[in-house]
Amino acid sequence: MTRHTWRVAVTACAAGALLAGPMALGSTAAPSDPGSVRPDQLGIAPKVDPGIARALERDLGISRSDAGSRLTFQARASSIRDDLAQRLGATYAGAWVDPTKNVMYVGVADGTAAAAVRAAGARAVVVDHTLAELEQWQASLDAARLDAPDQVPSWYVDVTTNSVVVSVRPGGEAAAQDLVARAGVPAGSVTFEATEEAPRTFIDIVGGNAYTIGGTSRCSVGFAVTGGFVSAGHCGRVGATTASPSGTFRGSSFPGNDYAWVAAASGNTPVGAVNRYDGTRVSVAGSTDAAVGAAVCRSGSTTGWRCGTIQSRGASVTYAQGTVSGLIRTNVCAEPGDSGGSLIAGNQAQGVTSGGSGNCSSGGTTYFQPVNEILSAYGLTLITGGGGTTPPPTTACSGYASSYQGTLSSGAAVAQPSGGSVTVSRSGTIRLCLAGPSGADFDLYLQKRSGSTWSTVAQGTTASANEAITYSGTAGTYRYVVLAYSGSGSYVLGATTP
User: What keywords were assigned to this record (predicted)?
Assistant: First the structure.
């Protein structure tokens, strides 16, 4: 795909293909242990689900050994981005990552803000336009969508070029320029992108897991929410019934948006997980937005588990039925049958499949409706942790010399006892037991201090909520680290030292 930058005022309407399939997010997190921190602050190497690692290796060429550091970097970048966006205010011009170098860039429209960016551990890029300006110009294009020519299939804010990118099919250059001019977008703010895309709707398809609408069409479950699931708005109107799982559309918005939620009938159990189509599932831990440039994976019943990167947030695309705005634009491939599927970054829900172009043989562009917007629109709560966060019984891990209890939110870690350490006076066997909340993935690490640093000497990192460690060690200072890899809730830790 060749990109051309034309210095003209531009407005454009996007023509796109729908890939329905929403994600639900926003579960109520359990209160964390006092002193809980990020895993990296305790020297915990990132654990990566083997299925995610395999998919990233296949689709992005990321080695399995590098997958953990990539996902950890992305999660930290999201936190830095959110903090800087608030602190920089009007001068903020967006953020993006170069995950191959673990570098985060932040655009600023005022050079004096660069120091704050550097202090946060990112690299500042001084640009001409703020993010608010770019989004306003995109909104001007959205407002002119009814006049958009067929040759203009999509447009979006590209923070990496500090411009509004307008995709144009061959022969549509003059019409695109005219549309941009009528929208009143400044000449220097637009980049035209030559494309062969002809996006189409993917109604008769499945996302994470299939469901049918009215006994005739088929779409995909995006993410489980309390009482049902979310999906794409173009899959069904309010009142339409579904089967496998059975339910009724209680909310639906399309075009403009592309989201819906289905209230499931009794007997259907929402589970906080995504089908990876290799016999396993990814447990959904939350819905923190990943940065532009971040690696993401999509689940769909036609092409299964596919990965790519985020190209933009807030993109607009025009389908035959009308324009949808505020979408996540990606280079993840998809095909008919994948609509409604889940988009996830690590274990964080991102969005549901709306539409796109191309296929999984030659590649393509796919758009996703952000899941947080769906949850907010309908007041829904995301199901996390593979289906539950029931606290373990207080008798779990009984029979140990010492016992510790606490509560962790997904992604947090804590050192026991009470953020401190224990002194082991002689060599012998250290036995540890962890009982975490049902449906979650909690991990256990035994660390030993050497000088001023801590090293992990033994670990229990299965996909279970429960772990056990038996370690033959020498005298020294040790601590026990509990990590809520996915899911939130209470845990019991038992420890016996020589």
Answer: Disulfide bond, Hydrolase, Protease, Serine protease, Signal, Zymogen
Any domain includes 392 = no
List, by residue number, the catalytic residues: 234, 258, 339
Containing domain of residue 422, as a range? 402-496
The 10s digit of each residue's pLDDT in 395-425 is 578 889 999 988 888 788 999 998 899 999 9
Q: Are 434 and 491 in contact (CB under 8 A)?
A: yes
End-to-end CA distance of the chain: 64
Asked if residue 24 has pLDDT above 80, the reply is no
**Is residue 367 located within the same domain as residue 409?**
no
Same domain, 194 and 337: yes
Q: How far apart are CA 101 and CA 123, in angstroms?
A: 12
State CA 348 to chain mean position distance: 4
- Output the CA torsion 26→31→37→43 (10° steps): -90
Which parts of 360-497 are beta strand (E)? 363-370, 402-408, 413-416, 422-424, 428-435, 441-450, 453-460, 466-473, 476-486, 489-496
Token pair of 215, please? 């006994």
Provide the pLDDT confidence category of residue 15 given band limits of 50, 70 and 90.
very low
Say whether both 352 and 235 belong to one domain: yes
Whether 377 and 420 map to the same domain: the answer is no
pLDDT digits (tens, 9 = 90+) for 177-211: 989 999 999 978 999 999 987 775 554 334 489 88
